[in-house]
Amino acid sequence: MKISFGTDGWRGIISRDVTFDNVETIAQAYADYIINQENGKKGVVIGYDTRFLSREYAHAAACVLAANEIPVFLTAKATATPVVSYSVKYLGLAGGLVVTASHNPALYNGIKIKGWYGGSATPEMTREIAAFIKRNPVKRKPDLSLINLFDADSDYMGHIKKLINWQAIKNSGLRVMIDPMYGAGTGYLRSFLESLGICVKEIHDNFNPGFGNVPPEPVEGNLAELKDAVVAGKYYAGFATDGDADRVGVVDAEGKYINAQEIFALLLWHQLRQGKGSGAVGKTFSTTRMIEKMAAKYRIDVWETPIGFKYLIPLFIQEKIFMGGEESGGIGWKVHLPERDGILNSLLLMEAMSCRERTLGEMIQEIREDIGPHYYQRKDLTLEDSCPDQIINKNKNTLIRELAEGNDYRVEELDGLKIIYTPSRWMLFRASGTEPVIRLYAEAESEKLVKKMLNTAEEIVITLGKHKQ
């Protein structure tokens, strides 16, 4: 089968796509790339999550790299992706590999590639690695002395402690619930909070490669048990990390889900109110416009990129932004890594609760009072036998006219078709690059208006899709 890289590495179904042969093929291509960059002697980190065969795939990749005379630092246990990324940067290595399929269902696995800077490979880097696929035979006779098992956690957690006001958390009296969703984030937050004397309980923390038949993605529909547990236990909040712990989902004291847009806005708001935000903030094209409104109020700049955290990474490397976030909940920090980190962002949210002595829900309400109400929703439409790109590109005027309803608007096409009506209200049409799907994004001043916009857009798209494009 052809091996191709997606938005964040390579993923596929275990045994059909993700096989030992394919893992070794990618490891050889990565080795060839590292050697071509004359970085072979620096070494790489290899980590893995809790999925079926992740540890074994990681060991296979390590053997291929060692057979190419590249030193390998192999994590001694399942390790969160941001921890692996930090190890790359902290140890000054050439890069890293993480065997993970992140938030995908249990049938999937894959490999994320990390650059020397401690973040996901840039599109240019990925293209260069892909060019080495099957160029050279896989080497399978490793010098095992080049493979070093190590504990990546302690250095990472020591670094994280310097980035947060842990004293405020320690003195807060917080009661929190943690849900690592059976993933690689298990234990990090619980052990750290216990060291501060915080009342903390962790659920879904045993080894379960099936993830309890719930995909390890911290979206509202997957957090029913966390919601119930938070309310029943009278906890102040619940924090869920995804399968490799680079994203976080949050539930407030009342069991209400705090969505990714609100998390991004809340973290930015907290930093700005603390006087810690300087320079500019980065956001992807489909992310809430609360960021623009907040930036204008606090007089900082905004950089907007195409959709995908990988497009924010160059801005971090060039030190153009102090914070960057995407629609799906990935948020990174200049003082840390050009990388998403669900562990750090969970602690920063706890810091905000501790410093302001407010619940998450109360702080969201403060933000609405500060910059106005914002409600956000996304809907994916599957259109069999239709070309999503053509539906959008050939019907731009129709989409714009029908949704504008005679009101003023402006159009942006950085990554899809976005119609902006007011500073708080917009609609985005974007075709999936891998499946017959059109993604609809809407944000407005009320939930009712968001639903109306999405329903209208869905009716128009479905009607257009029935005609041959």
Q: What would you call the quaternary organization?
A: single chain
The number of distinct structural domains comes to 3
Poorly predicted tracts of residues: none
- End-to-end CA span: 30 Å
The biggest sheet, with number of strands, parallel, antiparallel or mixed sense and barrel status, is: 6 strands, mixed
- Determine and state the CATH class of the largest domain: Alpha Beta
> Which structural class is indicated by helix and strand composition?
alpha/beta
- Give the neighbour order of strands across the main sheet: 1-5-4-2-3-6
Mean pLDDT over the residues? 94
Q: Total number of helical segments?
A: 16
CATH topology-level fold name of the largest domain: Alpha-D-Glucose-1,6-Bisphosphate, Chain A, domain 3
Indicate the proportion of strand residues: 15-25%
Named at the architecture level, the CATH assignment of the largest domain is 3-Layer(aba) Sandwich
Which range best describes the helical content: under 10%, 10-25%, 25-40%, 40-55%, 55-70% or over 70%?
25-40%
What does the overall shape look like? globular
- The CATH H-level superfamily of the largest domain is Alpha-D-Glucose-1,6-Bisphosphate, subunit A, domain 3
Number of separate strands: 20
Radius of gyration: 22 Å
